[in-house]
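User: Hi! I'm working on a homework problem where we have to compare a predicted structure to a textbook description. Could you give me the structure for the chain below?
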Amino acid sequence: MYLSLTSILIPTAGGVLLPALKPVNKNHSLRNWYVAAVTVATLASVVACIVQDTSFLHLFYMTEELEICLNPDSLGKLFAFLTAIMWVLNGCYSFAYMKGEEHLTGYYTGFLLALGSMIGISFAGNLVTLYLFYEMMTLTTVCLVLHERTKEAIYAGKKYFFYSVGGAFLGLFLFFVLFHYSDTLAFRAGGVLDPEKTAGHEFLILAAILCALIGFGAKAGMFPLHGWLPTAHPEAPAPASAILSGNITKMGVFVIIRIVFYVAGADFLRGTFVQYAFMILALLTILMGSMMAYVEDGLKKRLAYSTVSQVSYILFGLSLLNTTGFVGALMHVVFHSFVKNTLFLNAGAVIHQTGRTSVKTLTGIGKEMPVTMWCFTLVSLTLVGIPPTSAFLSKWYLAEGALAARLPVFSYLGPVILLVSALLTAGYLITITIKGFFPGETFDYGSLQKKEAGLLMTVPMMALTAGAVLLGMFPVKFVKIIEMIAMQAVR
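Assistant: Happy to help. Predicted structure tokens:
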């Protein structure tokens, strides 16, 4: 019964206690073991919760009507497990990448607290609990963005904070509206709106839902509140960029799923201006992000714009409001998390070992860092959607969902934009591989030196790469799990 709470308390308590453990903070190795133990224990607790705990857990009342509670369902367990896995691998990578850095106590404190808040979002039993943990996530992840404490990092941290909090405040409008037009603030597949109360007030409710989608879409990098991503990623350390892109953006997606399918209900939104506005914003973001990534020379900033585009693939699938689109969206949540964590860890390894930060300086990098660049190549092919890698499956379902929705223009425009974006993705990622492994006759091969990162950095990259590829080659059980969640949610 208490496993869901335990999964939140372990990393939260670990983060709170870390600054007070002076002997641990003075010894780099001890601090690493401490963080590793907390993240592994969190993963073990989440796995135990997935296997055993499906029970509702009341925590306390903020007022007589605002309850804080946990109620882990299949959707929340999927997001919690994905988060915990990535934190273990990212932590391992961080121990090597962050070695010798200053302010590491603050970094790892934010790292652990962010893990606790994200599992709290995943296991939240109602909107109030979700909002509480969502704001906690923003506050704790700001520490990761401004870790370097430079002028640029502080500016990036402030931009990330104001975009996130501003978006959350925009979403808060929906909560006040729902309080009057629903019978509960808890999540229920198919929605919680009371037909008798909503009669005659549909426009107000739809407007509030659209505000919430735009507001929480900020965390997911959806236009027009996407601007924090290309600013924050170049300034944050590479492992922080990895989880910002691969996991924290997914919490924006998670909240949107809860609002669309567990609060409003797909039936209430089908054919309304909210569905079309949501779809237009998602498709616009896909195309804009891909084009910006294609022309960007900074390696991490290119990957940031890629995230802007790829996360909106997920949002497009959700906007279709059908089971097939939902399956494609949820699959892309998982696949993109594996891929984008890998790509940012690849970028971090290159920066750590060579100091190169721009794409034009990466000619021949495949000869110097073959393991890193093979991982980069394989996950790049995955992101493009080349079969049998994993993202091919999610894009297939997204295209099928668009055609099945039978929406005027969008049922065909959606797949076309997905195809154009895939071509642009190949242009801004595969070209790095080609120049990295085939630098040309004019390249000075005599000056080449092996600069591969150590095992603590290469093993997590290899594990993530294997996951991204193998999930596409052996997808049957995974697809069944996703389809089960989708059938429960889309009613």
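For your comparison, note the following. The first helix runs from residue 3 to 17. Residues 272-491 form one domain. Good luck with the assignment!
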